[in-house]
Amino acid sequence: MEADELTDGESSRRPRKKRIPKACGACRQSKVKCDGQRPCSRCHSLRKVCTFTERPKDANEMGISE
Prior knowledge:
Blueprint: H1 25-30, H2 41-46, H3 59-62
């Protein structure tokens, strides 16, 4: 197979959007998308306090099973 040939399904894949690692507290509480800026655009426009807190990972998030 040549390098420029695509197999079935490869041509229809869309590039993934870049995900931000954390949402601010206000966006997380409201369950809306956060842009990750500091302050985020939503908090800035609503004049809310924009805080990013470091949450400790639990066993499920780290992929550890009992």
